Amino acid sequence: MAGNIWVLAEHWRGRLSDVTLELLTLGRELSGALGTQLEAVLLGHGAKGLAAGLAADGVLSVDHASLAEPNPEASCLALAALIEQRKPRAILVPLSNVAADLLGLLPSRLEIPLVNFCRDVHAVDGRLEARCVLYGGKLEVTVAVADGPAVIGVLPGSRPASAAPASAPPVTDVPVELPGDLRVRFEQYIDPEPGDVDVTQQDVLVSVGRGIQTQDNITLAQELAEALGGAVSASRPVIDQGWLPLTRQVGKSGATVKPKLYLAAGISGAPEHVEGMKGAALIIAVNTDPQAPIFAVAHYGYAGDVLEFLPALTAAVKARKA
Amino acid sequence: MNILVLMKMVPDIVEELEIAPDGKSLDVEAVRPIVSERDDHALEQALLLKEKYGGTVTVLAIESRDVDEVLFTALAKGADRAIKVAAGEAILTAAEAAALLARVLPAVPNLMPVQLLVTGCQAIDDLDGVVAPALAERLKLPYLGIVTGVEVEADGSRATVFKEYAGGTRGRYGVCLPAVLGVQAAPKPPRYVPVAKVRATMKSRTIESVEAPAKEEASLLEIVAMTKPEAAGRAEMLEGSPEEVASKVAEILSSRGLA
Amino acid sequence: MPDPTITRYLTVPGWVGLWVLAVLAIGLFVRRVYQLVRVLLRGRGETRWDRVPRRLVTTVKNVFFQRRLVEEPLIGVAHLAIFWAFVFFATSFWWNLARGLFPFLPVPYSDDLPWMAYPMEILGALALVGIVVAAVRRYVFTPQGLERTRDASIVLGLIALLLVTFLVSQVAKGANASGLYLSMWWAHMATVLSFLVYIPYSKHVHLLASPFGVFFTSFKPGAMPAESEGASRLEEFTWRELFNGLACAECGRCERACPAHAAGFALSPKELVHKVKEMVLGAVHAAAPVSGSATAVAAPGPNGNGKPFVGDVVRAEEIWACTTCLACMTRCPVFNEHVPLIVEMRRYLVSQGEMEKRLQDVLVNLGRYGNSFGKSARTRASWTTGLDFPVRDARKEAVEYLWIVGDYASFDPRAQNVTRAAARVFQRAGLDFGILHEAEQNAGNDVRRIGEEGLFGVLRDKNLKTLAGVKFQKIVTTDPHTYHVVKHEYAGNGGGSPNGVEVLHFAELLDRLLASGRLKVTTPVGRTVTYHDPCYLGRYNGVYEPPRRTLAALGARVVEMPRTRDEAACCGAGGGRIWMEDVAGIRERPAETRVKEAAGVRDVAALVVSCPKDLVMFQDALKTTQLEGSLAVQDLAQLADAASATVRSDAHVDA
Fold first, then answer.
1. pLDDT mean over C359-372
2. How far does the CA of residue A155 sit from the closest CA of chain B (Å)?
3. Alpha helices, H only, A39-130
4. Are B242 and A304 an interchain contact pair (Cβ–Cβ within 8 Å)?
5. Could you tell me if residue B251 is inside a domain?
6. Contact C245, C273 (CB under 8 A)
7. CA A94, A100, A101, A107 torsion: positive or negative?
8. C97-131 b/e with 16+ CB inside 10 Å = b?
9. Amino acid C203: pLDDT
């Protein structure tokens, strides 16, 4: 339908991405406020099964062999055709590696507006307004989204993830003609060597500093990390003692990490360390010194003993799972 | 092989950014321009390709404050030609810049066609567009972004391009040339060129200047307001016994889908 | 006793044989020396002919009195004996050779004169003892930095032989054993002539070269080499830099003093100079490369197959490991100049862009923001917000003391505490002082030691331009690196400070303030402390006593560490190393070694520093050596602030 809110249902290697589910929550708000429908656009090959997890009024599915893996040329052609046919008000596209190229190609292909780096979108008196992050977060802009169709690039974390709907939404198969001789062709994935844990790829890091006091106590952190599905990392003094390998070091001389959760256990928060972890989505710090600099960068803090806190949290987390 | 590198200046976010009195735009006087970080990587990627396969590297930028030093530095690093596009006083958005470049590039003497156009896959001021893919569309060239490695076939008709995904996984793609590539990172960090060499280059080389045709389309962007983000204060301190706090933290984690 | 050269041997007079031997030996000797000099002349030029009288005095002091050698007493005294024996024996040799070649000369042989013979016998015996000591030291105890090379054994053997033959010949004279005397005389002569030939072919070329090395010394050991594009091949070094290789006696003192080497870095100053020697010796026969050939490579290295000198023979990690602490040059008995060698090679690496990423980023930050932290220049004076008085802007008002604060003192949170303490001290003493606020750029000392001359020039010129518009009488700083470069390298070609103004380190200023009573001590320190001499204040500038007098005046009891003053062990931050990544495989960081040394001082409460980088390095080292409870690291400024606090207790002793 014309004027609908669309969400690009991003999926990768068989899984819907978390940000897609967030965008569906956002899209539902907007379509509700505008009095239109929320539709999810699913581009892929043999991926229709994912539609069941999409909390939308309908799913537009384009199935083509060239869309089996992310292909900017094919996706752009497919999506452009869809938009031209059906003229949505706006399409919410996640800002991720998978959708990034498409996000950039689409507006020029169709000569339609793009609003990028959005962390929030609202409907105001029938108009769409986006709050965007600019210059690496130093400034924010409020943008009036021009008349559609408009492409809106949205950052992860704008809304909570939507739950899968009770019943699968209706799926419309949309046939799209794609040229046989695409100029960009996917060949294969190259996965990294399995080695020691790569701290930069972890969603959850339980990071230990000198407050852990002994090498043996690191097992407390290890248990919590396992309970949370993450890994143990460390600040410099711990690495220097040789209690953990160099690959676990976070900070200026180690890795820069951006996990969803960074739990700083007994870390003072020296600038060299903070530099490596300040981008984490949620930072919880525990340190006996309430004046420790880590608390300036953490979201939540506890001025207590890590040796008591870690096992307590592990127990609490496990209790919830049970 | 002939490679064109597009570079642009963005505000340096190490410095404080001020909002202009109109409340909707940046106070450009207070801005200290710096070359967009990804474009620096794109230049490095181009130079590495030149070292491996031979050919020429041309660097092109739209005129703005401090762009000369960037272009001379590129020449000092090994680029063969540097071109500046004079585009008047207006600050261009990313979409406007892409449109301008699409019109200007064919008009630059002895430039097109090139086999490869590289530039950064994104910049911190890409609010209404991303230059690399937008330009690719307008020039009707194939595009791949978030590129971390490039290899070119012997006959120069195809490139094998590596694209970065999450978790350290890379995707290998075959791309027909000529093409536009949006570079995330070069295989090696951008090289260092000593100050003395840049100074010497400023004396011995010149930057060509090309007039741009008048701006045709305006950006579709309508900024309502520009503000500073709310200050992120100190951590919210949790009180209680270790067990009580652990319970509160477990609650927080659960609400974020982390536990 | 019969005259050895008139006596006939199988009807041939001795002097015939002597002529044959002499012409052969001296010919080979001269030819070899000529070849070596020719190689040296392939290097770039350098002016070392100025101030000849002063050079002669330096040579006499250091060569004849062997000042630096006796720093290691046992071998020093042994070498002194060997050296002085050599002086006499060499004199005797030429004398006797002349007399032997020209038997008609109406002079006796030297050893027929008591005033030659007695010293020679005594010194000869002492020297023989010295040789035994040296041999035992080298072959039994083998201290670090000494090797049991074939060269060394030949040299020791030849010296021993010439001494023994002489002594036996004297005994034979006394016993009237003419046959023995003659054979010993000839044995001695043959030994010395072989030694003469051997000298320029062996490491013992230092015998010839080192007095010249001392003569051609730089009177400013901390100075940087003249502007150059760096050196990677023989022709790109100056003749004096190449000369280091020939003057080196491979004694190992530099290696024993080097903090990088002790920590386990790839650098050995001795090995470095040895490689230069090999390059020079190897170039004797290799043809000079055609000038302008792009891929010209150094003369063959030890492997003799033309590998590049920098990058292959000398690896980049060796070159970057140096902290420029100057310990090597301070200990070297032949006044070799290791640091300029390293800087020349660093200049080359920089010109090629061959340095680690972190260092590159720092240089880019320095060029762009004027500080190594990559922070906006506008935040340079933000440390002042912790003070309860404003710090004057010297750009706007005339001041007596212009305080050039320095990067670490301005931006590092731990060092900022010290900077504030210094500001309070200035204020309390009623000094008229000001800072440059955001106009101050990094003074450039370490940029220069990294080898980025171009960037150094940019920073210096920006600073000088700012200074030109400022009215001030003296410059003061708490940072020894800033102190050194502004004092010596900020004025044109001659070197010196801007317009020759007086440049003071905070320790020197404190010394004056306390001595004159302008700063009064209200709460004496009353603790035992030990003081670490910063490299750029101590070895580079000889400022040892002012901080000690200051500490005494503040009421501290100063107990020295085992390595003190010009033997102080570097914290490891200099030469740009603080901007480089840690290297894997380090045994113990220099700062860790030093804090352990400090903690070993009995009853010591604090390790006192007077350099912001020392503060940061040692405080970090306390954590990694788990000495945090046992020892505090404090700057002189903090002690002065606490000790001079007024009754209102406005001093903050930040940890």
1. 95
2. 13
3. 72-86, 100-110
4. yes
5. no
6. yes
7. positive
8. bebbeeeeeeeebbbeeeebbebbbebbebbbebb
9. 74
Query: Smallest Cβ distance to C353: which of B14, B16, B193?
Result: B193
The answer to whether residue C617 scores a pLDDT higher than 50 is yes
SS3 string, C274-303, reads HHHHHHHHHCCCCCCCCCCCCCCCCCCCCC
- pLDDT, one tens digit per residue, over C42-53 is 999 998 888 899
Is the pLDDT at B220 greater than 60? The verdict is: yes
The mean predicted confidence, pLDDT, of chain B is 92
| Mean pLDDT for the stretch of residues C371-383 | 92
CATH number of the domain encompassing residue B126: 3.40.50.620
Do A114 and A203 sit in the same domain of this protein? Answer: no
pLDDT, average across residues C461-466: 95
What percentage of residues in chain B have a pLDDT greater than 70? Answer: 97
Give the pLDDT confidence of A172-208 residue by residue, as tens digits.
Answer: 999 999 998 999 999 999 987 666 788 888 999 999 9
Instruction: Considering only CA atoms, give the Rg of chain C.
Output: 29
Q: How many domains does chain A have?
A: 2
Of the candidates A58, A194, A33, A255, the residue with the CA atom closest to the CA atom of residue A124: A33
- Indicate yes or no: CB of A260 within 8 angstroms of CB of B125: no
Mark which residues 216-275 of A lie under 8 Å from B by CB: 227-228, 260-261
Is B197 a domain residue?
yes
Q: Find chain B residues with C-beta within 8 A of A75's C-beta.
A: none
* CA-to-CA separations, C60 to C63, C119, C209, in angstroms, rounded: 5, 20, 15
- Print the domain residue range for A70: 5-173
Is residue A270 within 8 Å of C619, Cβ to Cβ? Answer: no
The residue of A235, A240, A247 whose CB has the most chain C CBs within 10 angstroms, and thus the best one to mutate to test that interface, is A240
CA dist., res. C419 & res. C635, Å (int): 10
The helix or strand, by DSSP H or E, that contains position B237, with its residue range, turns out to be strand B236-237
Distance (Å) of CA C617 to CA B36, C534, C572, C620: 34, 12, 8, 5
Instruction: Give C100-111 pLDDT, tens digit per residue.
Output: 999 888 989 988
Domain assignment of residue B245, yes or no: no
Q: Please check whether residue A235 lies inside any domain of the structure.
A: yes
- The answer to whether C521 and C555 have CB atoms below 8 angstroms apart is yes
CATH number at residue A60: 3.40.50.620
Complex ipTM value: 0.88
- Chain C CA closest to residue B195: C454
Who wins on pLDDT, B213 or C250? C250
Distance from C-alpha of A115 to C-alpha of A152, rounded to nearest angstrom: 5
Tell me the residue type at A279: G
d(CA A288, CA A211): 8
Tokens 């540097």: give the residue: B82
**Which of A283, A209, A212 has its CA nearest to residue B249?**
A283
**Residue C408 in tokens:** 């670490």
Residue window 562-601, chain C: list those with CB within 8 Å of chain A.
581-582, 584
CA distance C632 to chain B (A): 29
- Whether C457 and C384 have beta carbons less than 8 Å apart is answered as no
Give the C-alpha separation, A91 to A43, whole Å: 14
Beta strand segments in B87-169, E: 116-120, 143-152, 158-164
Give the β-pairing of B179-183 and B116-120. parallel
B23 and chain A: CB distance < 8 Å anywhere?
no
Q: Are B110 and B210 in contact (CB under 8 A)?
A: no
Tell me whether residue A315 is in a domain: yes
Are C503 and C475 a contacting pair, CB within 8 Å?
Answer: yes
Q: Mind telling me how many Å the CA of C613 is from chain A's nearest CA? A: 15
- Give dist(CA B130, CA C584) in Å, integer: 41
Which chains border B (3 or more CB–CB pairs < 8 Å)? A, C
Q: What is the reported pLDDT for A253? A: 65
Of C413, C584, C624, the CB nearest to A237: C624
